[in-house]
Design brief:
Layout: H1 10-13, E1 32-37, E2 44-48, H2 49-76, H3 93-111, H4 117-146
Antiparallel strand pairs: 1-2
């Protein structure tokens, strides 16, 4: 599992305690599941099977749903013509570049939390589309700045 958990206690980072509630697995017999990795040593970290791992899964599902909704809104919004963009005004190429970059940041966060293959495939497709769109908008803005801008 590729999700990373930050700001863990020593016991949590060693996989001995739940990353959500902090329950010590050496002191209590609680069913636990691997939910990700500790970023420094790449070791597995765990959460109580119920309710903590369920809470993590629900949060990942919520984040994926919000990202899909955000992408649908951006995809449905008509793109402004370059001449209406006011160069760095926010609605034309510059605004589109910023929206693509925000989508890429959100997608990165979701990829780090998902282990569901269909969701990962959706997120990879989303990454490819927004990366290409961001490249195009950045290239257009670079060309305009070489010409002296507006």
């Amino acid at each position: 599992m590729e999700r990373y958990f930050w700001h863990l206690s020593g016991l949590q980072a060693d996989g001995i305690a739940c990353v959500v509630c902090g329950a010590n697995y050496l002191k209590m017999r609680i069913p636990s599941v691997e939910v990700g990795k500790e970023p420094n040593n790449q070791g597995p970290v765990y959460a109580c099977a119920d309710p903590c791992a369920v809470r993590i899964a629900k949060e990942a599902d919520r984040m994926a749903r919000e990202m899909r909704e955000a992408v649908a809104e951006v995809s449905a919004a008509p793109e402004a013509a370059p001449e209406d963009d006011g160069f760095l005004g926010g609605d034309g190429h510059f605004g589109s570049l910023l929206r693509d970059l925000r989508s890429l940041v959100g997608t990165e966060a979701l990829l780090a939390t998902s282990d569901d293959i269909p969701t990962i495939r959706f997120l990879l497709d989303l990454t490819a589309r927004h990366a290409e769109s961001a490249r195009q908008h950045a290239q257009q803005l670079l060309e305009r700045t070489r010409d002296g801008g507006e």
